[in-house]
Design goal:
The chain is an alpha/beta fold. The protein is 40% helix and 21% strand. The protein has one domain: 3-Layer(aba) Sandwich (Rossmann fold), CATH 3.40.50. The relative contact order is 0.17.
Length: 207
């Protein structure tokens, strides 16, 4: 009797904007520095964006401690924890994020410690000096690596820095997308609610 082929799946989710609030917007609100409100929704070049952020922190004497203090007040987006809990019961899930090890611990605890791949910061005492990318084009390469292991990858993101992983994935979806992306990438489904996203994931597996 010939056995049935079982397709193993990895669900790859962006973090900020998909399951958590935007950290830098919260920091901007707390500090009163509107320059820190820029996110990957506004600036597609992540290197340029991080250089901008670090220069603002340095010019205003803002260290990691204050940023972590702000992060400690944040909660996952409404409905995100239940969505993630149910998703993890049915699938292997990885958070592919351009956040940092030094930022993520509180929100990962709030979400029940999902598997997270992210970047790192270089510090001098409390001062943020630079960021260290895990690897160039990290999100896309992570998806490609999972595919190389034989996994079907379903990916979900909201912004410019997610596009490479969404296009590399076997199935990709925009969730609460940055302005202009749905029109520019009509081949990517664009959803707004976790129930819609859960249903799409259930049917997104390709032959």
């Amino acid at each position: 009797m010939q056995g049935c082929l079982i397709v193993q799946r990895i669900i790859a989710l962006d973090m900020e904007g998909v399951v958590t609030p935007e950290i830098w917007i919260a920091v901007a609100t707390h500090t009163g520095l509107p320059e820190l409100r820029l996110t990957t929704r506004d600036e597609p070049d992540y290197q340029k964006l991080m250089e901008h952020r670090i220069s603002i922190l340095s010019a205003n004497g803002i260290g990691l401690g204050l940023v972590r203090e702000v992060i400690s007040t944040l909660k996952p987006l409404e409905g995100a924890k239940d969505f993630l809990d149910q998703l993890r019961r049915d699938h292997q899930v990885v958070i592919l994020s351009d956040t940092f090890e030094q930022f993520a611990d509180h929100l990962m605890k709030e979400l029940g410690y999902p598997h997270l791949l992210c970047h790192d910061l270089t510090l001098e005492m409390d001062r943020v000096v630079e960021f260290v990318a895990r690897i160039d084009d990290a999100k896309r390469k992570a998806v490609e690596s999972y595919q190389g292991l034989g996994y079907h990858v379903t990916a979900v993101g909201d912004s410019h820095n997610d596009l490479a992983m969404l296009q590399q994935a076997d199935a990709g979806c925009l969730f609460r997308a940055a302005e202009g992306l749905p029109e520019k990438y009509p081949m990517l489904p664009c959803l707004e609610a976790y129930d819609e996203l859960r249903n799409w994931i259930a049917t997104a597996e390709k032959a």
